[in-house]
Amino acid sequence: MLGMVEKKQIIVFFSLWVALPVYAGQADRGRMGMRERNLEEIKQNNPEAYQNVLKVHQRAQRIADIVSQFRQGQMNADEARQKLIPLVREDSANRLGYLDEEISQVKTRLDYLLQIKKNPNFLIEKTIENYLAPPKTPEGEVRGVPSHEPR
């Protein structure tokens, strides 16, 4: 089972990976290197997520190939549509799996913004609280404080 971090990595990586093949002639080499580094990081940290990313890339590449063939006049719209339906359906199913999580994040953000709108001092207090909080590592651990101690 993939955790939240792995899901976010896959979403970010998928966004980068899909955009580049479609615009292959216009791809920025810096992004290509970043994409490869991100893929290597996922491969090392979570082999299951890596396999999922490869499947996503293969599907995205098939979609890009079909779109390219259609635009070049090598197939008509009906043929392209029939080939795209199963690929897009699978892609959509993967995206729908993340919707509840994304909706929850948006609701949390909206609640936060509504609190700020109601009470501008809330933003001031939260900002000061963040400034004075102990620094955290990327994993969320407070530096110098064991994770079992209250913060």
What topology emerges from the helices and strands here?
Blueprint: H1 4-22, H2 29-45, H3 47-71, H4 77-96, H5 99-118, H6 120-132
Features:
about 150 residues; mainly alpha; 2 domains; about 0% strand; disordered C terminus
Written description of the protein model:
With 151 residues, this protein is mainly α. The chain has 2 domains: 4-97, no CATH class; 98-134. Helix content is 75%, strand content 0%. It has 6 helices and no strands. It has helices at residues 4-22, 29-45, 47-71, 77-96, 99-118, 120-132.
Q: Whole-number radius of gyration? A: 21 Å
Q: For the report, how would you describe the main beta sheet? A: none
Q: Overall 3D geometry?
A: elongated
The helix fraction, in percent, is over 70%
Low-pLDDT residue spans: 16-29, 145-151
* Average pLDDT reading: 77
Number of domains: 2
Distance between the termini: 29 Å
- H/E series: HHHHHH
